[in-house]
Structure formats: C-alpha cells, structure tokens
TrEMBL record:
SUPFAM superfamilies: PLP-dependent transferases. Belongs to the class-II pyridoxal-phosphate-dependent aminotransferase family. MalY/PatB cystathionine beta-lyase subfamily. It is an enzyme of class 4 (lyase). InterPro entries: Aminotransferase_I/II_large, C-S_lyase_PatB-like, Class-II_PLP-Dep_Aminotrans, PyrdxlP-dep_Trfase, PyrdxlP-dep_Trfase_major, PyrdxlP-dep_Trfase_small. Its EC number is 4.4.1.13. This is cysteine-S-conjugate beta-lyase. Pfam families: Aminotran_1_2. It comes from Pseudalgibacter alginicilyticus.
Length: 401
C-alpha cells in the first residue's frame, strides 16, 4: 500500500463534493465526484510542514517572499527540465486564469479574436469572452486515436480573421496531449508569420507520463514572436486552494506593461502561505511528485486494461499528460440526455460533460483520476454495471413523450 492508496473523507465544503454544486449541475447529490481537476491525496509532507510552521506562530503581519518564490521556480525548471528561466522575468498573479485575463487585455483589443484548440478547458471561453474578445475555435484532429493540431485551419484563420493571440494548453486539458517540439515549433512559426502572440498555459506541465516529454514554449522562444508562459504548483502538488500562479515574460515591453497592470490592481501580493508552500513544493517536493507519477501511470494502465476487456463500448484516449481521462461514449448510441442519465443517475458518477469543452462533444466526458486506485476502480465498476443494465425504461418512456 502506498501513500496514495489511503482513502480520505472528502469534505463537503470542497467544490467538487458540495451538495449544492452537485445538485445544481448534475441533479443529484449521492454521486462520486470525479469532475474537478484536483486531488484526493494528502499533499507532500514538506508542504504540510511549511504551512504548519506558519500557523503555530500566532502572528500574521504583512509578509512577502516573492524573490525566494521566483528563485525556487527557476531552480526547479533548471533541474527538472534543463530550462533557464530568469527570476526577474516572473510576475506573480492570484491564479493562472487571472494571468490569462491580464494578458488578453494587454495584448488585444475588444472584438479581437483569441484562438483556442477545442475541445479545451472550458474556463478559457469564459476568460476570453469576459474580456469582450471573440473565441476562435481551431478543432483538434483525431488520427489513429491521438489528437493533433490542425495547422492548415490555423493558418487559414490567421490569414482571414482578426486574431491577436493563441491560447495554448500544454499539456492539453481535457484530451491529454503533450505537444511535441515539432508541433510547438510549427505553431510558433505560424504565429511569427502573422505577428500573433502565443499564450501558453503550462499548469499541467509536471504531470507527464513515461513515454512523453514536456517541452515548454519558453525553451523555443528564439524568435521575434511574443511568447508568454503561465504556470503554478497548484495542479502538480494538490494546492489549488493555496497556490498562486505566475507568468514568465521574456519580452521587456510586455513584461513592463503586465507588471504595471498587476501592481496597479494589487494582484501581485500573494500570501505568505502560498509563498512558503510553493517554495517547499519546488525545493523539497520532487520525491513525492515522482512517486505520484508512478501511481497515476499505474492507474492509467488499469483503466486501459479494464476498458479493453470489460467496457469495449467506451473509447479511452490514453493521455500523455494530466490526470484527466477523456472518455468517448459514442458507441453506446444513446441520446445526449440518455447518456447523462445513465452516467449520473444510474452509475452515480459526477463527470465533467464533454460539451463544457466544446459544444459538439456531447458524447464525451472527462474523468479526474487523481484519487486512490480503489476509488477509480469502483467508479468503473459502477459504470460497467449501468451500461450492462441499459438506460432505465422509465427514462426512455419519458424521453419518447
């Protein structure tokens, strides 16, 4: 038994298991919540200890530690990825989404287009539209069970639409692609050709499996193109309610503009809790992360085997990165409503609906697997039982009416 096999009681005030949230989104409360991209694991001991030291002081005066935070991030990237990131080029923000919102406003005007590869993390749509910019869809192509960017479509849209930035997700949420060096370079070359900025959300960069390699956009920034990187220890170390985000901007003009905006809105003054937790994660959390990756890969292998042998009706796109599983239920040949009823009301699972990520993906769902394997196994047993039983006859009768 590993540290990740321990079953913890999921607090009902956590977003994913809050009864009000479950009821409003799924129509039921007695569900296994696997819809939010966070973890059901205890965070690494060094992070716990760093936070406990702060709590027992009983004094909470103003305290900032951003220089040490940026040094820890820089040192981590050099050790882990051989990536040289200068500490002076970081900007702290409350979250990656906050950073994206700031960048979109600094790099474009109202009415401009921001291109995304869909299906994609649904909050991208919200952060673009709330800035009064237009979401431009570049639909991913499926080839032999793997998603790829459609570069012909990208160039066509760069040529004909008023696009000012590409918002890239790497590794990609929800499909799990870790974009190759060649793919990223092709995107950069196209962006350079049409003077378009690349904004790279790399929050999942540390959750990459053994047959893949994460390549940061920062490692390829050898051109005049403006490239900005966003990251956070939140997804990697299970610190979603604590950790801040950060931007890395090599272009001095953009860096100064973003710093001015962040400082004028007082967005850069993170808490000492976030700072010390981040420092602990990046200086003492590597052993925990390596063990986590082994565990998650074991879970992925179990899922792949189970679906192949027990659930051939469900298509599993094995991810190269992230702890999200993208499931395709098309072969069940159910209506959208019947599929949701089967998964939610019969299998008792709260999964993220595919149409969150792109409106046409109604036969897909995203499952978070950052939980003890026994819990993930139980989820698939429940799903298999529901599929074998078929959709409730009472629901079918109501649907026909």
């Amino acid at each position: 038994m590993t540290q990740f096999d321990k079953i913890h009681t999921v607090e009902q005030n956590f977003s994913k298991s809050n009864p009000k949230h479950l009821k409003s989104m799924f129509g039921a409360t007695d569900l296994m919540p696997l819809w939010v991209a966070d973890m059901d694991f205890e965070i690494a001991k060094p992070i716990q200890e760093a936070l406990q030291k702060l709590v027992i002081r009983n004094m909470y005066a103003y305290e900032f530690n951003t220089d040490e935070v940026f040094k820890a991030i820089s040192d981590w990237n050099l050790k882990r990825h051989k990536l040289h990131l200068h500490p002076k080029l970081f900007v702290q923000v409350p979250s990656v989404l906050t950073g994206i919102g700031v960048l979109i406003r600094e790099l474009s005007e109202k009415g401009d287009g921001i291109l995304v590869q869909t299906p994609v993390y649904h909050q991208f749509f919200k952060v673009i539209e709330s800035a009064e910019r237009k979401v431009i869809h570049n639909k991913l192509k499926m080839v032999n069970g793997l998603y790829f960017m459609d570069f012909e479509d990208i160039e066509r849209k760069f040529k004909t639409l008023n696009i000012k930035a590409v918002l890239l997700c790497n590794p990609h949420n929800p499909v799990g692609r870790v974009w190759s060096k060649d793919e990223l370079q092709t995107l950069i070359d196209l962006a350079n050709k049409y003077n378009i900025t690349v904004i790279s959300d790399e929050i999942h960069s540390e959750i990459v499996y053994s047959n893949s390699q994460f390549i940061s956009m920062a490692s390829l920034n050898k051109s005049e193109n403006h490239i900005t990187i966003l990251g956070s220890p939140a997804k990697t170390f299970g610190m979603q309610s604590i950790a801040n985000g950060y931007l890395y901007i090599a272009d001095s003009e953009i860096l100064n503009r973003v710093k001015h905006t962040v400082e004028s809105l007082y967005l850069g003054h993170g808490s000492i809790y976030s700072a010390n937790a981040t420092i602990a994660a990046y200086t003492k959390g590597e052993e925990w992360l390596d063990a986590l990756l082994v565990y998650l890969e074991k879970s992925m292998q179990w899922i792949e085997n189970f679906i192949q042998n027990e659930l051939p009706e469900v298509v599993f796109y094995k991810p190269e990165g992230t702890y999200q599983v993208w499931l395709d239920f098309t072969k069940l040949n159910l209506s959208d409503a019947a599929l949701k009823h089967l998964v939610v009301m019969q299998a008792k699972l709260a999964l993220a609906p595919g149409d969150w990520f792109e409106s046409t993906h109604t036969q897909f769902m995203r499952m978070n697997i950052a939980s003890p394997l026994s819990k993930i196994q139980q989820a698939f047993y429940q799903l298999k039982k529901a599929i074998e039983a078929g959709v409730d006859s009472t629901f079918i009768e109501e649907e026909i009416k």
